[in-house]
């Protein structure tokens, strides 16, 4: 099992308190002066690239963090940039193979264009070891360099204390400004904080915390939520938390079919998650007890193929009421898949959400990559656009949802578009977020990993949090403590969308 670098205590403090502490003026790097210091800045340069040419196709993640880099350069800091990129496999691939596929070289070219070759000193071939150390040693105050992909080393994703210690040896100060990875317990996110005495959240993380936590922990009510996407397993923790927090929760996407199946609706060949039927039932019971309006699709679009919309003759809209949909009389015929919410559902979701003064949306309502199956997702994007123009607070998180609203040209008026997928959801759940917690206990890791394994500062054994939480969740969804839905891992952060 992967080593966890989180301590038992810090892993269980209420996330609201962690967020409040991180937003304190003391931890604001804008009020610091790191002149001459070696500042290691964890950034999210996991940008999309053109497979054929290797060129960066969307540089917004790089552009977003440029003000942070510039701020540190203006303070005359020596800035060391580190990031993961793609999914190299150090156990299977040689360094040459990884270098050919997952080098940060294209990002280095972008940085040089943006910062100029006086300030930006290029890419070091490794993120730890003698090459990295030599490159850092040559860095002058007011200069920056980029270290090669952290995931070339197993120890980053594998949370190795040795890797974290080697990375920490390069710097005096650690600043994390990669919100997309703060739900990860990894060497360059949590591990490094054990060995660096000064750790700070960067301005981008502070902005996410301000926008998300303020607006969702104490929302202007009514609070409405639209949730979609493929898997209940990815999101049941956040649905459970939102059932406790929101006034209206509208669920679409493929995961809605598992909730419908849990209610006894027959859904044809649509893939459902059998293992989650019972937790879904408990969550729906809890919503009814609390008075949360949990809305499921009342009609859906079905198709004989998930990818071939041209089969128009076998596509239709099916109403989905318990009365008409039974295994004997399935509403969606066998061999057919539910691919989007239907027109009646779109109208209901829209009507209910437009009554809300705060709306959060995560996850497409259907298999929106196929244009014919995108109407439900576009309808939700349109609803948020309209609500924004009417003065509602609107927030969107999640790679695919953000891609959908951007592609529909409806992003302009949205109050906040979050850069996090899994991280945004964990923040709302109010649990997890080891990368945030770690920033509050810098330099406390004297013995981590010595003697092999997962000992922590308090001497306790630290477990793999997501696995533990998953087990808890299966045993009982809806603990009913405000934002206390259980945390689950989510792999969104690595998807380049
Ligand atoms: P986000 O990135 O916004 O958090 P997710 O990654 O959870 O969203 O889910 C997005 C995926 O869910 C998309 O690939 C989409 O095709 C898929 N999806 C949504 N509804 C369906 C459906 N009815 N059938 C198949 N796939 C679906
Ligand atoms: Mg996604």
Automatic annotation (TrEMBL):
Q: Does the keyword Acetylation apply?
A: no
Which source organism? Volvox africanus
- EC number(s) reported in the record: 2.7.2.3
The record's InterPro entries line, in alphabetical order, gives: Phosphoglycerate_kinase, Phosphoglycerate_kinase_CS, Phosphoglycerate_kinase_N, Phosphoglycerate_kinase_sf
Similarity remark: Belongs to the phosphoglycerate kinase family.
Entry-linked HAMAP family: Phosphoglyc_kinase
Residue ranges with Gly residues bias: 443-454, 476-488
What is this protein's record name? Phosphoglycerate kinase
Spell out the reaction equation it catalyses.
Answer: (2R)-3-phosphoglycerate + ATP = (2R)-3-phospho-glyceroyl phosphate + ADP
**Pathway(s) the chain acts in:** Carbohydrate biosynthesis
Cofactors needed by this protein, per the record, are:
Mg(2+)
> Where do the record's region annotations for Disordered lie?
440-497
* Subunit structure of this chain's protein: Monomer.
Instruction: Tell me which UniProt keywords the record has, alphabetically.
Output: ATP-binding, Kinase, Magnesium, Nucleotide-binding, Transferase
């Amino acid at each position: 099992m992967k080593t966890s670098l989180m301590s038992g205590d810090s892993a269980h403090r209420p996330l609201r308190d962690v967020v409040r502490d991180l937003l304190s003026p003391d931890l604001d790097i804008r009020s610091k002066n790191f002149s001459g210091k070696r500042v290691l800045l964890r950034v999210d340069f996991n940008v999309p690239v053109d497979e054929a040419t290797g060129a960066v196709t969307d540089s917004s993640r790089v552009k977003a963090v440029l003000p942070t880099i510039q701020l540190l350069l203006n303070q005359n800091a020596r800035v060391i940039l580190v990031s993961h990129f793609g999914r190299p496999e150090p156990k299977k691939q040689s360094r040459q193979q990884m270098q050919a596929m997952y080098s940060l070289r294209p990002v280095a070219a972008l940085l040089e264009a943006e910062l100029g070759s006086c300030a930006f000193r290029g890419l070091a071939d490794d993120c730890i070891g003698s090459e990295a150390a030599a490159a850092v040693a040559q860095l002058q105050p007011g200069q920056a360099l980029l270290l090669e992909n952290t995931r070339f080393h197993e120890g980053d994703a594998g949370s190795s204390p040795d890797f974290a210690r080697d990375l920490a040896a390069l710097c005096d100060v650690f600043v994390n400004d990669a919100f997309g990875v703060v739900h990860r317990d990894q060497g360059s996110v949590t591990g490094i904080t054990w060995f660096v005495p000064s750790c700070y959240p960067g301005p981008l993380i502070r902005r996410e915390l301000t926008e998300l936590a303020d607006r969702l922990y104490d929302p202007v009510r009514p609070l409405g939520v639209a949730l979609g996407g493929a898997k209940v397993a990815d999101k049941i923790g956040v649905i459970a938390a939102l059932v406790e927090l929101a006034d209206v929760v509208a669920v679409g996407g493929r995961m809605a079919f598992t909730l419908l199946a849990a209610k006894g609706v027959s859904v044809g060949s649509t893939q459902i998650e059998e293992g989650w039927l019972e937790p879904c039932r408990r969550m729906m019971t809890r919503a009814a007890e609390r008075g949360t309006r949990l809305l499921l699709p009342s009609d859906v679009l079905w198709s004989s193929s998930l990818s071939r919309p041209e089969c128009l003759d076998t596509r239709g809209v099916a109403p989905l009421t318990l009365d008409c949909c039974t295994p004997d009389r399935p509403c969606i015929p066998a061999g057919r898949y539910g691919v989007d919410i239907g027109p009646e559902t779109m109208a209901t979701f829209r009507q209910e959400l437009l009554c809300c003064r705060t709306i959060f949306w995560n996850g497409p309502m259907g298999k929106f990559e196929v244009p014919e199956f995108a109407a439900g997702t576009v309808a939700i994007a349109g609803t948020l656009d309209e609500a924004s123009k009417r003065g509602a607070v609107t927030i969107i998180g999640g790679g695919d949802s953000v891609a959908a609203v951007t592609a529909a040209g409806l992003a302009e008026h949205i109050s906040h578009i979050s850069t996090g997928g899994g991280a945004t959801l964990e923040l709302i759940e109010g649990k997890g977020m080891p990368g945030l917690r770690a920033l509050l206990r810098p330099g406390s890791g004297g013995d981590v990993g010595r003697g092999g394994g997962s000992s922590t500062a308090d001497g306790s054994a630290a477990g793999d949090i997501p696995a533990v939480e998953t087990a808890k969740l299966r045993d009982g969804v809806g603990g009913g403590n405000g934002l206390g839905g259980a945390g689950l891992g989510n792999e969104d952060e690595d998807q380049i969308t």
